[in-house]
Amino acid sequence: MRKRAGIILSHEGKLALMERHKQGRRYFAFPGGVDGEFGAGTGEEYGEVNPFHRTYHPLWMPVEEILEKNVVPRGLAELTVKSYKEGWKDSAIIHEEPHRK
Prior knowledge:
about 100 residues; alpha+beta; five-stranded mixed β-sheet; 1 helix; about 15% helix
């Protein structure tokens, strides 16, 4: 299983997400990654832009739209909306998605 770290960042009823276009697919992901140093300017998003293969666009999405959009990982999107509505846990949560093929 590929491991990555991500952050859930909320502000005024919205969540920070990255709009991605990759291999003709459009989706939204929680900010994070698999390696590198945060803010160093060396991540994949700083590379050559090819609209078909890889584009990144940071945005704020209203919480009420999260489950209507293609936000991945889906399980984390669902957990985030539930926690936003019902209250956040006092400690960090490790969320694991089943391996995709």
